[in-house]
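Limitations
The structure tokens in this dataset are predictions for the assembled complex, not deposited experimental models. Users should treat interface geometry with appropriate caution, especially where small molecules or nucleic acid strands are included. An illustrative entry is reproduced here so readers can see what is and is not provided.
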Amino acid sequence: MAEQKKMVEAITSMDVDFAKWYTDVVRKADLADYSSVKGCTIIRPYGCAIWENIRDILDGMFKETGHENVMMPLLIPESLLQKEKDHVEGFAPEVAWVTQGGQEKLTERLCVRPTSEVLFCEHYSHIINSYRDLPMLYNQWCSVVRWEKTTRPFLRTTEFWWQEGHTMHETAEEAMAETERMLNIYARMCEEYLAIPVLKGRKTEKEQFAGAQATYTIEAMMHDGKALQSGTSHYFGDGFARAFDITFQGRDNKPAYPHQTSWGMSTRIIGAIIMTHGDDNGLALPPAVAPIQVVIVPIAQHKEGVLDKAEELRKRLSAICRVKCDASDNSPGWKFAQYEMKGVPLRLEIGPKDIENNQCVLVRRDNREKTIVPLDQLEEKIPELLKAVHDGLYQRALENRENRTYTATSMEEMIQLANEKSGFIKAMWCGDLECEMKLKEQAGVTSRCMPFEQEHLSDVCVCCGKPAKSMVVWGKAY
Amino acid sequence: MAEQKKMVEAITSMDVDFAKWYTDVVRKADLADYSSVKGCTIIRPYGCAIWENIRDILDGMFKETGHENVMMPLLIPESLLQKEKDHVEGFAPEVAWVTQGGQEKLTERLCVRPTSEVLFCEHYSHIINSYRDLPMLYNQWCSVVRWEKTTRPFLRTTEFWWQEGHTMHETAEEAMAETERMLNIYARMCEEYLAIPVLKGRKTEKEQFAGAQATYTIEAMMHDGKALQSGTSHYFGDGFARAFDITFQGRDNKPAYPHQTSWGMSTRIIGAIIMTHGDDNGLALPPAVAPIQVVIVPIAQHKEGVLDKAEELRKRLSAICRVKCDASDNSPGWKFAQYEMKGVPLRLEIGPKDIENNQCVLVRRDNREKTIVPLDQLEEKIPELLKAVHDGLYQRALENRENRTYTATSMEEMIQLANEKSGFIKAMWCGDLECEMKLKEQAGVTSRCMPFEQEHLSDVCVCCGKPAKSMVVWGKAY
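Predicted assembly:
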């Protein structure tokens, strides 16, 4: 137990310093490491395995809905990036430029992709001819580069990994429906697999993606009350199509511009998992993406038969879950602390007495609840308990969000809440950029989204008193 | 049939112009497209699906042998690339340099990774401390950039996708064993999944990877007799470890340098699949990686019950294979040609007569052999026939290699064979670079490898007449 204590003490408490707690967890759970390249991190095997699980689930949902993967170039010629005015204004200031290739100085600079709308558009201009070619539903898994001044693993890095979907449709309605469909897939990913409750809504114009006509978002609340944008889906109308001269022959035999969407979820979501579910013992992973779902810790493993039994269980359980048996010569206490740090959802303890009684002890990561389970019932009990851990994590996150969601109907209230509390503040808004800027200046909050589920809190804008157009959720964000 | 003919005529015959045939297949089978970025191609959905299947199989074999995936930065500081002398000499001339990041001109240039030895070494220098940390068995899936003057989809592109394994070991013996183990995994991938017979051997010093002490290779023969290096595995000794000051505390408590390997297989292998198995009707895909293994083509589909039956079969067969039903209003002839072009291993034809007789027709892509199969036997017959297509492709490739493998015991013979034939030429070699250069100059051939299975063809070097050290396979290569 002394060792366990030692490990636990090695992390900063989240109440003392949440930012320090976060980086402690990232390092101690072996998720990521800094590299010698400014702003770039290394995703270590444990972090990479989480990302691969997320990728496989999302990719399955994309394919089920008819999307196909492609692999686009990493580099974008400057002239191509400049084709859509708003887009280049948004991204040009933060890209990395390649100016030399091999022995030759390039006549045109190439940027390392910060996002790939323009590459997809150029490709679409070659392959879309008729309404029969639509919809075109493409996605790619890759990394992108956006020059950052600060580095926080998963949350803010110069290079990050993501998927970017890019689709083209015959009509505006179909493109809008796609934008919504993909937002719903992201929400399902968060809620059903990552145990993260999310708010679905639309971004204000100020917070919209560069070049988009509408940006939809799912916003999650971290344990400290700050928001994390967890996935976005954009509707472009035919703006890019016009800029790239992408036309198709319509059903009426006339040329028409297709309507476009794009949508992305990135390795930031791992930051959301850490900050939604973690505690002072470390990471707590949602079972659906945990690289190890059950860790077997043998007790008194020097005693005859214990390691054999543990290994026998590992083999047996590998048919129903991702299981690991730690037979190393570290103490059980060290192992308990180690796998709590790594967020493993269930711990299975088995010692000589358990073997005698043909049972074992299962301990949940989320609430440390212990259950004694007869060995012949493990195949039923483990899936049940994994589900219980998922639900437990989800409930805790939901309660945190509910407890930290406030309502402001006056500017004084808004400023006071923003100063004294950390969380979401619901308030009515007139729709003017000026008020949005004022709320940022005076209360330090940004608009997270205009939730699809609107409430009528008051008739007037919290800032200017003019008639309100919608309820906005405001907050501080990662 | 007119339409089918039209499509078939649209590809250049491989005997007329093999290079043109290759690019025709790449384009007509929708595998890849050119982009506006010099040297960079777009891997289209069908090509991407083949790569994903290859990735999943290889990744499974890597994980079975204890390897873990990581994600390393895309960019390498110039000073880091320069740490190992031979390595930088090999790669610096062909990298792309980032000189500007966001608004700032960089004080140190960053190259887009051409390969990641130096990034892994730097990371290893931080995380390897004791012999208990070894072996360290890492891999990553990513793209790399090497500036190329010419572009041939899959074969030679500035950006290509691959996996790169990088491992560290306690002893030289263990590192050598790993080098061999991974070469064997590549050979298994080629022979058991891609139906491509390969020669395993060691590269001559001239052909070695920059910074390696030994490079092992698997060499495949394309249908035109030229070689394609299909996977390489390198042994580095402790050269990089010394350059990067990576040490660990050994079992004797003394500091020691670990021994290193790296190994890679890339999207070039898709080029190998095309050129090994393709024919004048297009692509022929090995079943293990074919995105569609069975295509159902309804015959007389306007007749009642045909489309329903076809769809019923599709659903039923999706439990045992990757199956697609093409119910479009193109003619059966057009569909036959289309899916032959795409290399689908099996075609299932079903029409009103077949339905009456409770049967269907299965047609193999490799030899067009037709089998009439009772519908209730499909679950047995399809796996059998997929296996038969795999074996058929493998046998054809093996026969091609055997028919095109020659022996030279004199320089005259070597020059004559190289001029008149296209294939592998076995000949003895003294081990001197001078003779290797002379063979290139006079016969236009390069050493492909020194096969593990050596033969004693003569006592002396084919070039200089001095005592021979080993048998080398020579040839022209992609």
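Some entries come with short summary sentences. For this one: The longest strand of chain B covers residues 159-169.
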